[in-house]
UniProtKB/TrEMBL annotation:
<keyword id="KW-0472">Membrane</keyword>
<feature type="transmembrane region" description="Helical">
    <location>
        <begin position="20"/>
        <end position="40"/>
    </location>
</feature>
<protein>
    <submittedName>
        <fullName>DoxX family protein</fullName>
    </submittedName>
</protein>
<feature type="transmembrane region" description="Helical">
    <location>
        <begin position="175"/>
        <end position="195"/>
    </location>
</feature>
<feature type="transmembrane region" description="Helical">
    <location>
        <begin position="60"/>
        <end position="77"/>
    </location>
</feature>
<keyword id="KW-0812">Transmembrane</keyword>
<feature type="transmembrane region" description="Helical">
    <location>
        <begin position="151"/>
        <end position="169"/>
    </location>
</feature>
<feature type="transmembrane region" description="Helical">
    <location>
        <begin position="109"/>
        <end position="127"/>
    </location>
</feature>
<keyword id="KW-1133">Transmembrane helix</keyword>
<feature type="transmembrane region" description="Helical">
    <location>
        <begin position="84"/>
        <end position="103"/>
    </location>
</feature>
Length: 217
């Protein structure tokens, strides 16, 4: 069952874009913490505002959380280091989820719950790479599955750079608008190339199967 899910082309495409999506979700909030801006303007009279003001006043720790979020996003979006990115991301999103549940965020806990679920899916997807951690005094058998090729790795880097730029500049400026256009172009072009490769590979299999049957006869 796992192998069938893992080798399905549509599932592979979904996982690649789930990594992009989770990475994008961390970039604006991570960058906000890195540059030292407050995450929220809620009054300190409210428990949520009081908590985030205390977190903001922690200084270097506040910046460190931002760096960790951006790093997790980058690792995920490169695709090449996505397994490590999922591990780092999971440690962060578990804490964020607990904060939103504990402080009774209205609606936000639903979003963080979905993010936690999505990251869990990524860890299950890469279980064959992680199962050695749970092995005791044995050499686990690792099944090798194809990782995303350079097309998706390049697209991930482009997404990271331009979405980070969109988060860094005011929305009414020209550069964020150009960045948004570049993100859309990257999505269209990368998926068009991937689809053409898929159709070409499928046609090759369809063409070679009759030839193999004739050879057997």
């Amino acid at each position: 069952m796992y192998e069938k899910l893992r080798t399905h082309k549509l599932n592979q495409w979904l996982i690649i874009h789930l990594r992009y999506l989770l990475g994008v979700a961390f970039l604006p909030s991570g960058l906000t913490k890195i540059v030292g801006n407050r995450f929220t303007q809620i009054s300190t009279d409210h428990p949520i505002g009081f908590f985030f003001e205390g977190l903001y006043q922690s200084g270097i720790y506040y910046n460190f959380i931002g760096v960790a979020q951006v790093l997790a996003a980058l690792l995920l979006m490169t695709q090449r280091f996505a397994t490590l990115g999922a591990v780092v991301y999971y440690s962060l999103i578990v804490n964020i989820w607990l904060i939103t549940v504990s402080l009774s965020f209205k609606g936000t806990w639903v979003i963080t719950s979905l993010m936690l679920l999505a990251c869990t899916v990524l860890l299950v997807w890469d279980y064959q790479k992680l199962k050695g951690i749970f092995a005791y005094n044995t050499a686990p058998k690792i099944t090798l599955y194809p990782d995303p090729d350079r097309l998706w790795q390049a697209a991930g880097i482009i997404y990271f750079v331009f979405i980070l730029a969109m988060s860094a500049f005011p929305a009414d400026r020209l550069f964020p608008k150009i960045s948004a256009v570049m993100v859309v172009i990257t999505f269209v072009v990368s998926n068009r190339i991937a689809y053409k490769r898929y159709k070409k590979g499928r046609k090759f299999i369809e063409d070679i199967n009759p030839t193999m049957q004739q050879t057997k006869q």
